[in-house]
């Protein structure tokens, strides 16, 4: 009997060029989340098998990179931009089709974020790509790049909240507000972080997301104490 491996190939169709290709995914039986960081980064029991590495699908034919969160719709003025800045520059690379290491995973998220910007995807989608990039840099203990991508993600979560473009996704207003607060806390924008944690706490009467409310309250108290010590 053949041994079941963590990775399996899944057939996908590129959203842009519509050609088929195989991308790797991690079998659910090998994924066990044992906790989350305060910015909702999942902590896996076995970090050698990280499903985040395989979240982005990189088309080997044209280079367009995307996730399940991308819309299939392309406005007419974006296709030419993608053709010129992605497809025309693309050199097929087998590394995205094989088992990925953390650097290949980071590159895949950067490609997807670049494609998402050219495609004018929702801010909530771009924010998710940038936040996951920051998580991977955290794993590498690269604080400079982690902070850079946390800031970019915070900006897009803010734009998403203002445009209400998270509606219809798995994200809620409570989670978006919480992440704006938490990411600003991590990059040192404490006053802004405090404001957004307060906005989350104000929703406690109406929200069913009690854990997020409690996390916001804990972070608000911790931040308040830190700010007092600094003063």
Can you offer a commentary on this structure?
The chain has 231 residues and is mainly alpha-helical. Helices cover 49% and strands 11% of the residues. It has two domains: 7-170, no CATH class; 172-231, no CATH class. The protein contains seven helices and six strands; from the N terminus they run ββββββααααααα. A hairpin with a 6-residue loop joins strand 5 (57-58) and strand 6 (65-66). Helix 5 packs parallel to helix 7 (210-230). The longest helix has 21 residues, at 143-163. The protein is globular, with a radius of gyration of 19 Å. The model has no long low-confidence stretch (mean pLDDT 95). InterPro entries: DUF2225 (IPR018708). Pfam families: DUF2225.
List the helices and strands and how they pair.
Elements: E1 7-13, E2 20-26, E3 33-36, E4 42-44, E5 57-58, E6 65-66, H1 76-85, H2 102-119, H3 123-139, H4 143-163, H5 173-186, H6 190-201, H7 210-230
InterPro entries: DUF2225
Pfam family, one: DUF2225
Any key phrases for this structure?
2 domains, two-stranded antiparallel sheet, mainly alpha, 7 helices, DUF2225, globular, 231 residues
Brief write-up:
The protein is mostly helical.
Helix content: 40-55%
Low-confidence region ranges: none
Structural class: mainly alpha
Topology, number of strands: 6
Computed CA radius of gyration, to the nearest angstrom: 19 Å
What pattern of helices and strands is seen along the backbone?
EEEEEEHHHHHHH
Strand portion, in percent? Answer: 5-15%
Number of helices: 7
Number of domains: 2
N- to C-terminal distance: 66 Å
Largest sheet: 2 strands, antiparallel
Main-sheet strand order equals 1-2
Oligomer: single chain
The 3D shape can be described as: globular
Average residue pLDDT: 95
């Amino acid at each position: 009997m053949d041994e079941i491996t963590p990775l399996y190939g899944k057939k996908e169709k590129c959203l842009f060029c519509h050609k088929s290709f195989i991308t790797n995914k991690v079998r659910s039986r090998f994924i066990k989340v044992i906790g989350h960081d305060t910015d909702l980064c999942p902590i896996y029991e076995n970090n050698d098998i990280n499903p985040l590495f395989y979240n982005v699908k990189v088309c080997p034919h044209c280079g367009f990179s995307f996730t399940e969160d991308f819309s299939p719709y392309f406005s007419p003025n974006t296709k030419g931009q993608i053709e010129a800045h992605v497809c025309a520059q693309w050199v097929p690379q087998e590394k995205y089709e094989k088992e990925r290491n953390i650097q290949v995973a980071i590159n895949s998220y950067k490609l997807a974020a670049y494609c998402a910007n050219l495609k004018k995807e929702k801010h909530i989608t771009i924010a998710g790509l940038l936040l996951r990039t920051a998580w991977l840099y955290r794993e590498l203990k690269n604080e400079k790049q982690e902070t850079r991508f946390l800031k970019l993600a915070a900006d897009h979560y803010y734009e998403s909240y203002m445009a209400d473009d998270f509606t219809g996704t798995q994200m809620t207003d409570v989670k978006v507000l919480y992440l704006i607060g938490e990411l600003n806390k991590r990059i040192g924008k404490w006053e802004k972080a405090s404001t957004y944690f307060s906005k989350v706490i104000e929703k406690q009467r109406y929200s069913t997301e009690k854990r997020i409310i409690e996390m916001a309250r804990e972070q608000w108290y911790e931040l308040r104490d830190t700010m007092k010590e600094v003063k």
